[in-house]
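User: Quick sanity check before I run a bigger batch. Here is a single chain. Can you write out its predicted 3D structure?
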Amino acid sequence: MKHVFLFQFFFTITVLISQNNGPKEISPQILLKLNTEIDKEVPALKLMLLKKEFTAEQIEFSIDTFRIEQLVSKRMDIDYTTFGMNTTVMEKTNSYDKLMNRYYYKLLKSLNVNDKKVLIKAQKSWLVFRDTEAKLINTLTKEQYSGGGTIQSNIATASYSDIVIQRTIAVFNYYDALIKK
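Assistant: Done. Predicted structure follows.
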């Protein structure tokens, strides 16, 4: 395991050093270019999902998550500074949060009055969990516990993002299962 980590670390460093111009800030023009590139990839993905007989909702969710993940990947190739990575991951998190809210409201509209109360209570509980977990993540990435280093901010940002992504997928799956019946 240690050797795999070292290989990945040195490979990443080699790639970063070999890039000619160094990291660049993501300007609105660059962002537009990246989104245009992603838009060109979507029809092929949609066709593949149709061939696999995905439902319209599954296709929509898959395309939305594809767009988010592709944008993250492309942004990281351009701005791989610690700040750039953290900014990209937080924007990814915000995009997933918006997606979660979209499917949360779709799920909420699909439930009867009593069951809506259960979903609302569960979501409120999850929000408390998310916020408390974020505090724990930030505590454990302090220098006194983690050994420090700039990578700790990347670890904290990614850990928080994972929580939001997992919940987004869960909420979509609840909704998807409900509409399939």
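Helices lie at 2-18, 28-51, 56-78, 82-110, 113-140, 143-146, 151-180.

User: Great, the batch can go ahead then.
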